[in-house]
Amino acid sequence: MSDTPNAPESPTPHGGGSHGPGAHEAHGHEAEHFHNHSGLYLGVGGILMVGTALTVYLAYVDFGSHELNITAGLLLATIKAILVALIFMHLKSERKSIYQILFVTMAFVIALFGLSLLGFFDHIRF
Amino acid sequence: MEIPYTVKPRPDTGLWNAKIGIWLFLASEVMLFGGLFSGYVFMRLGAAPGHWPMGLLNVPVGTMNTVILIASSVLVVFAWAALKMRNFARYRLYMLLTVICGFVFLGVKVGFEWPAKFHHFGAYIKTESLSKYEEYLGNQHLASKGLGPRVEITGILENHDALNNVEITEYRVQLDAVNADPSSPANDHPHFIPRPISDKVAIIAKEDVQFASMFVPRHSTYFASYYLITGLHGLHVLGGLFVFIYFLLPVSKRLYEKDPEHLANRVEVAGLFWHFVDLVWIFVFPIFYLL
């Protein structure tokens, strides 16, 4: 680890020279860790671009009914959004408190969409 | 006063404070955009046949902007990773490229896409007058193919005064390709590449028009929601750009020298916001441009 090219020579995050070697080693590990992920980020970016091209393409394919085009488009958008959230926003490995916040958020969003759909399908009739 | 837990995790949450803060903020953002998207669904489901326009936006330009936004999302993670690896020069480069992507996105949106719409005109024809304009609407052809009706004639308004002058009784419209040849099967569905405007001009009597305007928010629920949601999204892009520019200023270099992890965490939090803005666009693009 110690031969990592990007390891810092001077400013270490916290600490002075007292625990220099330890900090250096920890940091070397960190650097390699992030190096590995850069490929993943690039890969996900590529998948998102291909996904965009596919979304555009599928919008012009005649499935027989426009509803199917809408379903396909939204399904692809959802997959892309999940990729962004899991990888770019690091949600695939996050602390529990973040998941708790998001669980409540999703519950409210689903309720919100449910209520507006309920409002649409249950017209007031005079 | 030192702000606590900017780098070290807070014992009770297990996270540094800004991380919790940004996720709570993003949760409220999800509700904000969720409200607008559910409103969009509500209005679209309720739109009368022919009253939800398709193919009015420039899809190649929208696709390009989508690609730019995705690229900027990758760049901002790279900037953060560069900081984590303590490579400040590379961090600055990625951050600068992110900022450029953001400005190109906004420039295209506000400098090209919106103004192009402001110069486009549409007139909804009254139900009882639709047959008078059959040569521009092609509803017999559409009905024979089981497609929804066409109730609007669009193009470039030649007598612009007609919009405000009540003494002018007609609109002279240089027709869009679809209204110039409405019964051609080529015009049944929108095209990826926008078709050039025709040189055919239609005279539309005002008494036959239910509603007419340029493609501004008041034109239709479609354009009202389009400008509202893309406008709010654009403001988010602008807000993110302000923060990223701050990260390029000398003050951030000083923070890096004092505590690089603190700057990395700031970039991570701003990056989370930026990815969220990207995520919103992933839905905005298909629902307004494509479907």
Short description:
The complex is a heterodimer of chains A (126) and B (291). Chain A has 126 residues and is mostly helical.
Element layout with pairings:
The complex is a heterodimer of chains A (126) and B (291).
Chain A: H1 20-59, H2 66-88, H3 96-121
Chain B: H1 17-46, H2 59-84, H3 88-118, E1 121-125, H4 134-137, H5 139-144, E2 152-157, E3 170-175, H6 177-180, E4 201-205, E5 209-214, H7 221-248, H8 250-258, H9 260-290
Antiparallel strand pairs in B: 1-2, 1-5, 2-3, 3-4
Describe this structure in words.
The complex is a heterodimer of chains A (126) and B (291). With 126 residues, chain A is mainly alpha-helical. Chain A has helices spanning 20-59, 66-88, 96-121. The longest helix of chain A has 40 residues, at 20-59. Chain A is flat, with a radius of gyration of 23 Å. The termini of chain A are far apart. The model of chain A is unreliable at 1-32 (pLDDT under 50). With 291 residues, chain B is an alpha+beta fold. Chain B contains nine helices and five strands. Chain B has helices at 17-46, 59-84, 88-118, 134-137, 139-144, 177-180, 221-248, 250-258, 260-290; strands at 121-125, 152-157, 170-175, 201-205, 209-214. A five-stranded antiparallel sheet of chain B has the order 4-3-2-1-5. Chain B is elongated and about 75 Å long. The mean pLDDT of chain B is 94.
